[in-house]
Predict the structure.
Amino acid sequence: MQTLYNQLFSDEFFNCEESEPYFQEKTLQVIWNEQLFREPLRTENNDILEVLDAGTWNLEAGPDFRNAAIRINGVVIRGDVEIHFRPCDWEKHGHHLNENYNNVILHVVWDNPRKLADWPAGVPIYKVRDSLSAPLSKILDRNDIVFYPYANKVRPGEHAAYLASLDNDRLTNILNAYGLARMMEKARTCAEKIETYGAEESAYRLLLEVIGYKNNRVPFAELADQVPLADLQSYNEATGRAVLFGAAGLLPDPSSDYIHRRYTAWVGCMWDDWWSKRKEYKPIRWTKHSSRPYNSPERRLLAAHHVLKQNNFQLGRAIIKVAQIPDDPKKLFPQLKALFVTNIEEEFRYFLDFQRILKKPAALLGTNRIHDLVVNFAVPFILAQSFLSNDRELSERCKRILLMIPKLQDNRVLKEAVHRSFVPPTRAKEVVKGACAQQGLIRLYNEFNG
């Protein structure tokens, strides 16, 4: 353990200077990959340096970047680029004994305390420290260095070269078009559900599926199969909530399970309601170990019930009613969001599950999750209804809503799609401007990597 500690907090892993934030050598690789420098660039020998091609981030042993192209004093040179904190790291890392480094044409370093003009002999040095395009602290904030290993694990896809040839406006339009196409595909699936179950039952099922995140999408779908919307509509609020928790297998047994004192009375009341309505339900296996606390199935199920209750258990009708309002389209997105805002008692703002509470009160559904529900549930539902009713105006209104929704929270698929599609990856900030473009990027990624 001590050996690992020493390695992690050595100059070889972190730059440790009082005047600079701690950062890994990987940070310098990101800076080079993104070319975050002020021009003109000069080597430590005061020669003019131009970077024609930063090279390909190397996935294997050897120099950090392969097949780069630079111009020094007007002379083009092609080869590899190696990156270190200081020139002396070349020997520390054993590169002088490794023939894989014989084609290095530029040694990029953070600092050069010995004022070397080249190192190893004949390889010019370029010092990063004094020529950054922004303060290092801002570069660290703007670039997801922790995630950036995708840059050395995930190569740009075949489509990246074509996308690189497009200007930003053209690329944004393409992503939005792909995003609308992805929504159409989701709407088709939604329309098939509506034809099978009816509009309100489909809205209920879709709400549960989307609210469960990927880890519990299937369990929530199984719950919808076992407790149809018609059952909930036939019960009062308290009984319906008890039936959902009981059928889900999420209602603890007061005779054997620990229950937090805040919720002992509530659980007792739910058992009274559940006991009179219970029947045989298939066991549902919930995923809890890999979910964030705020995404606990108990908390998500309580949120779903509140959303249904606030919309009189006619959520589908409420969504379509908002979409049909002859109003400024800019107002429609906030009105759709309002359908999913859970107005709950203060006591239940602390609810995590029946054994634990949150340290600070929080809404059952946060802003990011509500945006996700609008994009992945409400918008496809509106489009599906417009298809089934052949309502062109409703369809166009829905498209305008989608184009106004801001970007959703990042996830692994989106981040990987960025690295597959854009060179450099930070271009995504310029062209992926909203939720529709994000959906388009995912469709593009799936199309070329499916």
Notes: The chain has two domains: 2-153, 168-449. The chain is about 50% helix and 10% strand.
